[in-house]
Amino acid sequence: DTIVAIIVAAGKGERIGGADPKQFIDLGGCPLVEHSRMALAAHSRIDRVVVVVAPDQADRIPDARPIGGATRRESVRNALEELADSGVSTVLIHDAARPFVPPAVIDRLLDALDAQPGAVPVLPITDTLARGDSVLTEGVSRDHVFRLQTPQAFRFDAILDAHRRWPATEDATDDAGMAQRTGHDVMMVEGSPILDKITYPADLALAEARIAQAME
Ligand code: CTP
Ligand code: MG
C-alpha cells in the first residue's frame, strides 16, 4: 500500500495580491508551502510528498515538480498522470494554501478509505445562506450543506478515472466534487478550522498570528 500526498502550489494567488504567489510567502521562517509539506511528510502512513509548482517556478522549492497547469484541476491531473502505473494505491490531494494539517485529520481520511473510494474533511456552515443578484431572491437551507477542505483522500484509480472522464469545458474547484460527479462515493470526515485556506490578506495575518503564538 503506497500512499502519496500531492500538494498543488502552482496558483498565482491573485486574490491575496502581492508580488509573490502566496505559497512562497515567508511564514515563520520558511515558504508557506513548506508547512504542509513537513506535516504530510512527517505522518507515518504517508510514503512520499510531491509538490507541484508552475514550470517557471521550478527553482523556488527543492525537489518540486514543475508540472503545474493553467487551472488547479490541470495541476492535479498532471501530477496524477505522472504517478500513473507506478504502483500508488492511495493519494492525498492538498492545497499549498492550507499550511496547517492536523495529523488526526489525515488518519480520519485514510481510515474512511476502508469504506469508500474517497474522503473529504468538512465543517458545518455557520453563516446564514441565501441566493440573490443585487437583492435577495431566496433563502438557502443549511441542512446537509458543508464546506469542504483539503487534504482530500482517494483510492488512486478512482480519482485518476474522475480526472480522465471530467469534461474539458467544465470547471472544478476540488477533487471530491469531481469524484462524486463521476460516480465515486466520497465519505465526509470532520475537518478542522486550522485547515482553512489562505485566500485573502486577512487569512495570512491569522496564519502569522498562529505561528507567532506557537513559537512563544
Ligand atoms: N493551484 C495550482 N494550479 C493552478 C491554480 C491553483 O496548483 N493553476 C493551487 C494553488 O497554488 C493553491 C490551491 O490550488 O494552493 C488552491 O487554489 P487557490 O486558493 O485558488 O490559489 P490561487 O489560484 O493561487 O489563488 P487565486 O485564485 O486568488 O489566484
Ligand atoms: Mg485560484
TrEMBL record:
Its GO biological process annotations read:
isopentenyl diphosphate biosynthetic process, methylerythritol 4-phosphate pathway; terpenoid biosynthetic process
**Annotated protein name in UniProt:** Bifunctional enzyme IspD/IspF
Q: EC number(s) on record?
A: 2.7.7.60, 4.6.1.12
Stretch list, region 2-C-methyl-D-erythritol 4-phosphate cytidylyltransferase: 1-216
Listed under catalytic activity are: 4-CDP-2-C-methyl-D-erythritol 2-phosphate = 2-C-methyl-D-erythritol 2,4-cyclic diphosphate + CMP; 2-C-methyl-D-erythritol 4-phosphate + CTP + H(+) = 4-CDP-2-C-methyl-D-erythritol + diphosphate
Q: Where is this site: Positions MEP for the nucleophilic attack?
A: R142, K197
Q: Where is this site: Transition state stabilizer?
A: R15, K22
Instruction: Report the sequence similarity comment from the record.
Output: In the N-terminal section; belongs to the IspD/TarI cytidylyltransferase family. IspD subfamily.
Pathway the protein acts in: Isoprenoid biosynthesis; isopentenyl diphosphate biosynthesis via DXP pathway; isopentenyl diphosphate from 1-deoxy-D-xylulose 5-phosphate: step 2/6; Isoprenoid biosynthesis; isopentenyl diphosphate biosynthesis via DXP pathway; isopentenyl diphosphate from 1-deoxy-D-xylulose 5-phosphate: step 4/6
The protein's superkingdom reads: Bacteria
Stated role? Bifunctional enzyme that catalyzes the formation of 4-diphosphocytidyl-2-C-methyl-D-erythritol from CTP and 2-C-methyl-D-erythritol 4-phosphate (MEP) (IspD), and catalyzes the conversion of 4-diphosphocytidyl-2-C-methyl-D-erythritol 2-phosphate (CDP-ME2P) to 2-C-methyl-D-erythritol 2,4-cyclodiphosphate (ME-CPP) with a corresponding release of cytidine 5-monophosphate (CMP) (IspF).
Keywords for the protein's UniProt record, in alphabetical order: Isoprene biosynthesis, Lyase, Metal-binding, Multifunctional enzyme, Nucleotidyltransferase, Transferase
Q: Extract the GO molecular function terms from the UniProt entry.
A: 2-C-methyl-D-erythritol 2,4-cyclodiphosphate synthase activity; 2-C-methyl-D-erythritol 4-phosphate cytidylyltransferase activity; metal ion binding
